[in-house]
Fold each of these.
Amino acid sequence: MPSAQFPELRFKHLEDVVLPKVARVRLRHPAGDPIADIPGAAEKAIRSSARLNAMPAGSAIAVALGSRGINSIPTVARTVIDTLKAMGHAPFVVPAMGSHGGGTAEGQVKVLANLGLTPEALGCEIRATMDVVDYGETPDGARCKFDKNAAGADAVVVINRVKSHTTFDRPIESGLVKMTAVGLGKADGARAVHRTGPPALSETLPALAKIALQHSPIAFGIALVENAAKQLVVLEGVDRDDFFEADERLLKLAKTHIARLPFDHIDALVVEQIGKDISGAGMDHAVTGRADLRSIPNPPPFVSRIAVLGLSKATGGNGLGIGLADFTTLDVAAKVDVQQIYMNSLTSTLVEKSRFPIVLADDRDALRALVSTSWSRTDPETGLCIIRSTLHLDEVLLSEALLPAMRASANYVDEGPLEDLRFDEAGRLLTRAYAADMAA
């Protein structure tokens, strides 16, 4: 794995920084009504498809998978495949993830494996290629590309989560439409969407999806919505003609289930893990306040400084989003697969997220630098927040300066005593928002 190399630098004045004490605070977030029988819901959805039921026995059905961080995706995918077999069809899986996995077929199979989606777990073959067919041109000149293996199937079933996108706010964001235009478009399709920058996400993307839906064998979709605890609250079968309507309707629901922090301003934010399974940008901009797109204003909250201390296991070295931080560590830099993040940025044209922040020797120095540069009046008065990730906000660590705002929030449950941050002999942070060490 190609990783970045940085020198181990120490700065004497950081030893004088007084880190604020923190309290462990528990929060509650919207839960909805989790689906009790996921396999039953998935089977019912597939069997509801008039198109799939009308197809002759032995039809080759490509099942498109690829979005990261969907908690129940192995169960959903296996049930869909087993049901298609029971209906007499011959399903196989195609990776539908644009340029992810380093823009190679082998890399995309590895991404699926990291999600628990192997041929053994799925019960069918995975046919991975970066080859595409061309279905024509949008009014603004973008070419509609589509996975060659999927294009050659008798039908395609698209499975994806409907949720907020990491870089834009539109009626339709991440979901069936985006997987159709970008995921199944492979690297060529992703480049076509992103070529003209953020406006293309609201203009070119839907135009490409409409062409793909018109010309490809896409027959059906499974739309998923999760709550803040990563439980499925919606599993809906969607006919190809209804992809746009379902995405727009379900996105409104999905946004009511998002976990958020009740702050307008945070001096210093520590993120224990980033990853593509957590957010497409590694960290959710609605938590960090940083989309960092030159043509689009950043959303609230305003966060003065951010430090990243680790990568999630499921991200497979894809540290995209590290460029949104101000500080990280030698350990994190060594685990970032530069090939992957550079490929993502070269494809998306959003290069800022692959830049490296200041790289310090260890967690302790990163936190000292974070606090001392956060523009707070004194070190102990810094509004410090430590989170496991922007996806996991059930427990957070907060300094005293942030506690009044948290106590006034409807999300507040309770808190523990203020305590000093603890580090081991190697400078690794032991006082974690998430007690178990989940870093890759």
Amino acid sequence: MLLNGSSPAPAAASGHVFDATTATFEAEVLQKSLQVPVLIDFWAEWCGPCKTLGPVLEKLAAEYNGAFVLAKVDVDKEQQIAAAFQIRSVPTIFLVVGGQPVDGFPGALPEGQIREFLQRHGIVPGEAAADDAAAAPRDPAAEVERLRGEIAAAPDNAELKLDLALALLQTGATQEAEQLLDGLPANLSTDDRAVKARARLGFAALLAGAPAPDALQATIAANPDDLRARHLLGVQRIVAGDAEAGLDQFIEMLRRDRNFDGGLPRKALIDAFRIVDDADVVGRYRRKMASLLF
């Protein structure tokens, strides 16, 4: 449906659903997306398919319980936002993560396809994500042995193989973990846990041939603007489990030159947020990142 017509009406709002306006867009959408994915629903009162899609999106926002928030933009009222996103038809959906649109789709997709779209981006219902965190092993080495035994009894259970890959990563066995991740079926390869594991593997790969932490610290002391050294030191700290020390290096990179190496400081922070398990630490550093970007 083309953008024309009028008779706009306000969209419904709830805990995870809100109306986005030009005045609040930066704070409620862009900055909010540094903390949680934001799904933008561009709609209009005169649009029939919008009235079909809107309730489905609102239902999913409630069900996912904070795993994403839904920003509703009435294109007749908020023409400036619609123009910025080059909206030509409604409904149109955009997913914003880390302050940037990362994907989207036009039209009123069925609920099942919307769930698949969310899953591709690692967005799972809030309660399920909390259950995964609660089930994280306290002793990775013991968990590896336990999972090996379970897989021996059920060699076709792909869920167990994903669990084993995660445990292996915590023990530093990145090569075996990568092989297991490569062998996952398509429905698990986009699982939130698999996405985090891939991010952790990417960090580990960056350290191949990297100087030792002491050498990197000496380099930074001699030249505080050596952002390459800061990046490697930050990665080393994250992989070693010292999340705040690593994030401090990435924040300092962002402060000194946000555009370094094609936006590497911001990318490093977003990748680290996928890896760090401490929600309080991630939230604090997301706010630091937002204060530097906006």
Amino acid sequence: MTMPHTELASVFPKIGFIGAGRLGCALAWCLDQKGAHVHAVASRSADSATALAAGCSACAVMSPQQVADECDLIFITTPDAAIAPAAEGICWRPGSSVVHCSGATEVQVLGKALAEGAEVGGFHPMHTFADPVTAARTLSGCVITIEAGEPLSQRLSRLVTALGCTVNHLPAGMRVRYHASCGFASQFVNVLLAEGVGAWQSWGSTEQAALAAFLPMLRGTIASIETSGLAKGMPGPVSRGDTHTVERHVQALRDFDPDMASFYRALCRRSVPLAQKAGRIDDAQAASIKAVLDTAGDAPE
């Protein structure tokens, strides 16, 4: 449900953006659609700033200092390496709130803003932003990770709720580990699919044909995880203790691509504890699979 403008404005009456890349545009447009007042944007690229402003109902293009002077909440949505220089180049207004949207950058890079009386924090949407128009439309429902002290943490949490998202509170010092963990559910899925596609292409098939086959399976696995959890929702030969099939997989992949075979073995080893947790295999079956994986690695390549 869209939060009325007056209620959202009571949290942060004027919101500004420094940086107008894909994440900044998507977040600004989504906030505007939910009734927030996205007041101003600054960017090194005039075209990018104009594009962000054009997607909002009443947003002006300003300098970074003007954004900081006029807005109550300032999102720094520059590339990670530009966050600290952007923050250090501004004189901050006491009582304003300044957050960056990087998953891996520590909040301490906003130290100048904090020293000058602003509240600082991190605000990281766990979403993909390859296409900002699509991201703005689909942002609601994702998790947004907040790292901030009070009262800013509570106010940002209200903003997250207004976006239709779920809050994840992160303690200080955990950002890099947190961001690395996100990679397993985002870009590494692409890597896993690319491995499978590579094998399909070896017999003359295409990436499109492989993805047409893989994506329904992936959706089914995700549905199983949602219903049964990680361990019980895991398919495949390890999950059912099928040592013979695991061994044949490794042999076939070793003949095709030794590096792929090594990667497969590593993934299988990580699969064994999940299969045990699900109660699908016992200790003897787990030991048998591990032995096959170790032996296969000793075979000539």
Amino acid sequence: MTKRIGLALKASVVVGTSLTSWYAGQYYERCQQLKDEKNNEHRFFNFKRMPGLPIFGTVSAATPVVPTDNQVDMGNKLTPATSRVSQIMKHGFPGFDTIRSFDDYVLSYDRRNKIANWVFEHLTRDNLYSEKKVDRSKCEFKLDESIHPYFRSLNSDYKGSGFDRGHLAAAGNHKLCQSHMEQTFFLSNMAPQVGVGFNRDSWNRLEKHVRKLTKVYTDVYVCTGPLYLPRKEVDGKKYVKYQVIGVNHVAVPTHFYKVIVGQTSDSKFEMEAYVMPNAVIDDSTPLTSFQVPPESVERAAGLLFFDKLSRDKLIKINGKKV
């Protein structure tokens, strides 16, 4: 009998100890969870108030966007880089995937396809002013070290491919200083483009058209990017098919788009949207033949352009009154 009581006491001690340890562990884990949640709220609060950046998603800037004087509430205390990013992205981010900010343009990088999802620029007549000392011949195509090595494109990917390293943010849009133009030569701003008949001809004409718009509007905002559009094959089914080049399998887009918004002196807005096939195009083909409804580009790209711009301020789309 005494032996049974002793065993029972030992068992109760073990169970009690186990329960106490379990409750202590649960209490510790809950405290840690509350601590982490509090820290996350604090980090989110700080991040949320950063101007010119999306609230959600991962942002890794080539030019850091940080408050001056370690201020959380910036007010008017913005670094030049922060101010410029806010200016370029004034009317909204098309998407939030892997954002990179440079001195005079902003891009979202597609790590799988090794080219940008989109590139955003803000042009005015003044910032298109060409300094004589700015020399394109001094610029070299270079890898973007802010991109993880797994996801970079290299110059060797393009070598012997038959494709040009085509600018998305055009070098000719950034002549204000040498460093601005040099930053357009990062490979993260490049995409494989057909050379003769496209990049050096029709696409170049579209880039020049965008620059001419600064003579009409006080501000011009332009978003450029690739598309991978389906095509019907001989079996009657539609497929999305595109080539890749180099050891890093850099994607060759089937098409490219530009969505442009021009702001008038009385704060009205006009929009133009273009989609061009990445192929040889007859140089006599007018640019207007490539105009498309902006929403068709949004659906194809999976992006929303100028979503912070009130649509009732748009007075024209592709030259037609709204």
